[in-house]
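WARN no homologs supplied; continuing
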Amino acid sequence: MIPVSLLVCVLAGWCAVYLADTLLRSSPTHRIGYESWLARRGLMLSPFHVRWQTTIFNRLFAYCARIHPRALYLWFNSGLVFGVVAMLVSVVLLVKTLQQTLAQMTTDNPRIGAQQALQVVVPGVNLPTSHLVYFFLALLLSGVIHELGHAVAALREQVRVNGFGMFVFVVYPGAFVDLFTTHLNIVSPAQQLRIFCAGVWHNFVLCVVALAFLFLLPLFLFPFYSTSAGALVTEVAQGSAADGPRGLSSGDIVTALEECPVAGVDDWNGCLSRLAHAPQTGYCVPAAGLQPSWAHGRAFKRLDGTMDCCSNNSLTDLCFSYIKPHTSEREYACMPVRKMVTGTRVCRGDRDCDAGAGPAICVTPSLQNQTRFIRVVHPPEAHMLFVGYPPHLQHSVSLTNFVPRFSFLHLDLPVFLETFCKYVFSLSGALAVVNSVPCFALDGQWMLNALLEATLASVVPERHKRELVGFFLLLAGSALLAANVALGLWMVTAR
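OK structure emitted
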């Protein structure tokens, strides 16, 4: 959930801003100076909303609009085609998402929710508070690139740009561009469509750039970070099964889980998944090791039917089971686990232990059905011995594929770049989809109106009829988007 301290800080900050604004506006000595100061800086304040607008970027937009006119013509025509296709695709995605949400509400199947292409994001609920910086930075970048597309396209079509601005609503940042409405209304519908589609087109391009950067990140960081050398531990959850003096710590490089090699994070996840579903691994122990002095315990059944032979308070011993030599009887022995498994081969049966120097027996940890004993190899330290559910180990350790080549390099830099690229890809794509929906107050409204004017003017000459068709289409799109948002919020907050 959202931390109470964060909510208190946000509310207190906005209350302080609103109180100061109210006092200055009501002061007879400071009101005129304060309002002129806001006007000179393009600032506007209202409850939970601050807005800044400037014209300092107009020359930059104009310069961009004059670069390679032919290339820009092809570029924004490509955006026009993409925008029209995106309107259809966004409606299909919203319909599919709504069906999946309704199915999840009736079946309680978590897999359906995981398969959804679009999900409502609520910070502190289904978005970790530790990722808020990534979320807001990626959202701001996506909004700026979106509005940059509108501004350059407008100037190319001879529509004046009054200014560019940014805003913060509660905690959500955004950007906007102010176009001269008179110029916008007199250009042709095709020109309007190029302007309105430029935002979602640039969001799509930003998605492609973020995805390419994500895949090429190992190449970009190659002089400073190596990959395929193991999974580097960046963080261990305090108090988890991987924490402690014999556990993992930041900077450790995991190279194997049991006999499963780990070259990166994907291997780590794959090995844990494989070990979770495979039978428990056995270990070749010399027959001489199974001696009476090693505390053979009396076996007893647990509540789930499995066997145990060690005291519940033991931190160093573990119950092992094996087939007694020359018989078919299964025996149990409580033995010091680290001494028994360190440097030993794995096995599935006694035959796997015949190749050793002396007689050996395959012993298997006697654990509950879903519990596993896993040796985590992270040289040069001694193996970490984990007993528990493999998903617990997976969620208690944060890892990265990038190992620094020099000691002064920060472990978290590749993690920051990876995570930021993922958020840019997700949020920029979401903005492209949502703004393409034919819905009131979104880019889709103006895209649809311009498209109808460009395609139906000869078929439906009466303007009011075309506007009526557009109104009902916008009403349907708005209802579809509202239903997705409402049900999505209910699913996220109610569960």
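The two ends are 12 Å apart (CA to CA).
OK
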